[in-house]
Each structure stands twice: as structure tokens, then as C-alpha cells.
Amino acid sequence: LRMSHIDFMDDTNTVMRHKFLKNWNDDRDALVYPPSSGRYSVYTGADIVDQFAFVVYYSIQDDSFASFSYDTLKDQGIRTPVSIDDPRLQKTWHIAVDDIPPMEFCINRIANVTVYNNTYEFDVTEIHDCVLLKFTEKEVKEIRKNSSVLRELLKERHITFRPEDALIISKGILKFSLRTIHFSPVSTDQRPECYRIDVSVIFDNSRHTGQVYIYLSTVISYVTLCSGRVLHGGGIFLVSIIIFIIDMLVLLMCIASFVLCCRALLRAHLLKLVSFSLTSFSGGGVFLVSIIIFIIDMLVLLMCIASFILCCRALLRAHLLKLVTMEFVETVLKRKLSLSDRLEFLNLWYLMIVTNDIFIILGTLCKITIEFRFK
């Protein structure tokens, strides 16, 4: 991964914490020891509801100075790449409340707890419940005006944070997904890339002490559901000039290779016709023509060796990049890179050029050896 991607992921995590964790500040982003403040947490059921209301993400497209949008492409039947000006994609930037994908809230709890005076009964059967939270536009407006309204809305969906639930609920996880486009104009070789951000806000009550820890985690994954182009205007950029020069050098090398090969074929034909007369005329000496031909052969040999080294270097770097990518995928994504993905790192053009250079080098060496054997 390039540093711009690492910085992008780190910055996105920071933005998500500021966006969805109430009263989060810059001091909590700083990694210092000892920390300047305690763990981010709440202590009452009302605080949990307030934090819950703050996380409700229906205003992400209105008050965020970032290219966040809702994860709605999969729900619109889009299975092919779309451009940024595609009408189907434009709908995801300004979308009605009723079309916004629901959030998911999962609760880890035990079956039941009964406490009376000095007796208790714990049914420790573990239960994992998940509920899709779909709010109407009217409900969203009410939540924005008064966050306490959310308590009744959650109660209608069988989600409560009462004092008697403190020993029952161990953990609550609020999940939702967003999409964003990453583009860094500082890097001249980087194109805009699309990402999906899976956000999880965890309410950790596993200690049952009255202090509910809250933390946010994100999983940022690359997606291929969008594509497009980058317009540079009418000017000619330095990168374009460099690429043009490289292309011209490749073209000139190919033309030179074509001319040299034709020369070799023509020279072989002439050598067949005049080899004896040339030997008689030279009197056994080394002629200027032979020196020129030897110099040209050496140039061909050096060019092929340089081409061979550069292509092998490119293949080796691609192999090392593949190893790093495989290690990253296994460590972060917990899966192995498929064979088809690994083959993406193998450039068959370079492999063909390396094979061609090997034969040209061997042929040139044999040719020079044969010529000087009979001089």
C-alpha cells in the first residue's frame, strides 16, 4: 500500500469518530502516554440514548464536508462499472430518507436476570439478536429536535436501556455502511478510487459496572462498482511530456531493432556471395567494414543486455509486491489471495521480452564468435 492510502484510512477513522461519537475531541485522537483523558464512555441509560441518537446517520449527506454517500448501489441492481456522472450514481448523493439503507443494531445478552432482596436467578443462556432500524422522515425530524424521542422509537422495536437491563445486556453493536471516493492530486500517478466503509459503534457493557465503554471501528474495503476518468484541461503536463518521451524512445528502439535485423539478413546474403573475394581483397587484415559491423553487433548486445536487466528488475519488483500484498491480505482481511489475483502481478509482455533478449544475446555472441574464428 502507498502512504497516501494508509493516511487516507487513518484520516477516515478519525473523521468517523468525530462524526459519530458525541463530544469526541482532538485530544482523544492524540496518542500520548499517559492519556490526557479516560476511556470514552457513558454512565446512564439517557446518555446511551443520546449517544445512539447522535450516531443516527441520516444527515451524513447534508452536514459532512466529505464525499460520503450511502451504500445504495447494491440495492439498485447496478452490477457494472458506472461513471461519476451516471444518473444512477447521482441518486446516491442526494437521496430521500425512505431510500436510505437501514442501520443494524445487534445485542449480545443473556436470557433473563431476576434479583429480589437477597436472592437472584440468572439464566445465562446467550442470545444474539439483530434488528434493522429503519426510520421514517418524520421520525428523523423528531430525533433531530429531541433526542429523547429515540427512546420510545427504540422501545417500539423492542430495544430498551432500563436499569434492569444493565445485567442482561453485555454488548450492543450499531452497524452501517458508507461509500466514499479517495483522490489525492499530490500523487501524479494516482487515480480516484472507490471505497466502502463498514462502520461499527460498540456499546461495551461486558463488565456490568455502570460504565459503558463506547468505541468505533471501521473496515475500509476497495470496491469496483464505479469508474471514471480524470480530465486535465487543455494544458500539457510534465507527466504527459515524460510519458511521450518514453514512448518515443521505445518507438526509436523498435525501429532500430527492425533496421538492425534487416541489416543482418542482408549482410548474411551478401556474405554468401562475396565471402571469398572479400577475403582475397583484404589480404588477411581487419577492414573498416568489419570494425563497423562489430561495433553495431556490440551495440545490439548491450541494448539487449540492458533490456534483459530492466525487465528482470520489473518482474522481481512485481513479485516482491505480490508477496507484500499476500501478507497484507492474510493479516488484515484474513483470507488468501486467489491465483487469478496473484497472476495480475505477472506481466507477460516483460516475460516475452526477456525470452526474446536471451535468444538475441545468445545469437549475437554466436555470430561474433563465428566471424572472428574465420578472420
UniProtKB/TrEMBL annotation:
Protein's UniProt keywords contain Transmembrane: yes
Domain of life: Eukaryota
Pfam family, one: MCLN_ECD
One of the record's GO molecular function terms: NAADP-sensitive calcium-release channel activity
One GO CC term, this protein: plasma membrane
Residues of the Mucolipin extracytosolic domain: 6-219
Organism phylogeny: Eukaryota, Metazoa, Ecdysozoa, Nematoda, Chromadorea
Coiled coil regions in record: none
InterPro entries documented for this protein: MCLN_ECD (IPR049134), Mucolipin (IPR039031)
Keywords: Membrane, Transmembrane, Transmembrane helix
Record field: transmembrane: 237-266, 286-316, 348-370
Name of the molecule in the record: PKD_channel domain-containing protein
